[in-house]
Amino acid sequence: MPMQPWFSDAKLGIFIHYGIYAVDGVPESWSFYTGQVPHERYMRQLDGFTASRYDPGAWAELFVRAGARYAVLTARHHDGVALWGTAQSGLNVPAHTPAGRDLVAGYTDALREHGLRVGLYYSHSDWNHPDYASVSHPDPGRGMEELNTNRFVAPADGVEDLAAWARYLVYRDAQVGELVGRYRPDLLWFDGEWERSESQWRMRELSGLILSLAPETVLNARMLSYGDYATPEQGVPIVPPDGPWELCLTVNDSWGFQRDDHRHKSVGQLVRYFTETIGMGGNLLLGVGPREDGTIPAEQAERLEGLGAWIGRHSRAVYGTVAGLPAGHHYGPSTLSADRRTLYLVCLDIPRESVAVRGVRNAVRRVRVLGTGAELDHRVVGGLHDVPGVLWIDAPRAADLDEQATVLAVELDGELDLYQGAGRT
Ligand code: GLC
After folding, report:
1. Which of 85, 218, 339, 378 could be stapled to 94 by a disulfide with Cβ–Cβ 3.0 to 4.6 Å?
2. Residue 419 lies in a domain
3. pLDDT band with cut points at 50, 70 and 90 for residue 98
4. Separation of 77 CA from ligand 1 center, angstroms?
């Protein structure tokens, strides 16, 4: 299925890891898997999860101010605690925590009211489900042997219980069916796929089930061969993945709320991640970790607002654009208007004398600083036969520089025509 255009045009999404792990502020699910926190203590967080100030409308307003067009909420992480009132056997917030209500419904309604697309995260794995640790991975791969020894993942004695595994898949499919049927998400963001093979997961059947209920649902690559787009994590790739993709990135070093993690990326760093990503045709899915009461920490909200302010000043270089110049033409990210006639050059550092662009065959009509409209002088120097010269653009005056990253809009005389040779005619 071709990618839904809303996804490619969205550029920014917000990833929300919200769950009982915010009560003590410990790593989501992983803290009991690794033994960092005893399982019993981890589960006691169920009693402290209140969602007492949960206001998804305020989340949605913040995400809109951040410039995001969609969000993804952890409907159920690897710990198996569903945020909605599932009719299946598993743990869930309405029945097992003082919060006592469905948190997914309010979130989906609030996002839609604010014109945002709705994403739901769902982990294939459930480390708390009694039927989950019933089979082993047939070929976990080097360094991944632990998968078949961890007691939350595989049978301790190695003896498989295929009936239990079949029950688990019925449970997972029923939960996914609930999510699709009740909330009609635009995007399902799966995770945890590495613990079983594609055939153990019955991915084909699961994908068939989702698409038969809602054919336009976008699926991430953690549906293995049945995903629509790649999900690099925590760093911008050097070369863009094939096809549509999305970088997921924490705003500090953690997905969920962790009291002592103050290592937040600066707004300038976020602008860099964001422009590098969209300049290679990807989306950025930026993570926040609400406290157990549902509020997003101020230092995270400020980062979102700062990124949103930069996007607001440069929206023409963001929405409705496609990947810009490949590496080597301009020292920084760039995007290209959908009609391919305007190049947006991002200058992450302050240009000194000039900005030089190589390998553009088109004549240039006009260059302006996108943020202020100031026009910049430019000329082409050198070039021979069909090898284009260098486009020199005068550096903007200090008053026209953006605090985070200045964008130059280069209007071409036609669709971008690039030279990529070795310089000999
Ligand atoms: C990893 C982790 C998980 C996190 C996810 C986000 O797969 O297992 O904790 O939710 O990354 O991409």
Report:
1. 85
2. no
3. very high
4. 9
Q: For a pLDDT cut of 70, what percent of the chain falls above it?
A: 100
Which amino acid is residue 141, in one-letter code? G
* Residue 326 belongs to domain spanning: 322-412
Choose the residue to mutate in 34, 194, 255 for probing ligand 1, maximizing ligand atoms within 8 Å of C-beta. 255
Report the separation in Å between the CA atom of 99 and the middle of ligand 1, taken as the mean of its atom positions: 24
Among residues 313, 337, 370, which one ends one of the domains?
A: 313
Q: Is residue 124 part of a domain?
A: yes
CA dist 79 and 64 (Å) reads: 30
pLDDT of 425 reads: 59
Domain assignment of residue 49, yes or no: yes
User: 342: which 2 tokens?
Assistant: 């305007």
* Within-domain flag for 421: no
Query: What would the pLDDT profile of 63-73 be if each residue is shown by its tens digit?
Result: 999 999 999 99
Q: Does 31 share its domain with 111?
A: yes
Whole-Å CA distances, 90 to 76, 153, 222, 380: 10, 16, 22, 66
Tell me, in angstroms, the distance from the centre of ligand 1 to residue 44's CA: 22
* Cα torsion 174, 178, 184, 189: sign: negative
pTM of the model: 0.97
- My answer on whether 268 and 376 are in the same domain is no
Give the confidence band of 145 by pLDDT, cuts at 50, 70, 90: confident
What's the gap in Å between 215 CA and the centre of ligand 1? Answer: 26
pLDDT band at 1 (very low <50, low <70, confident <90, very high): low
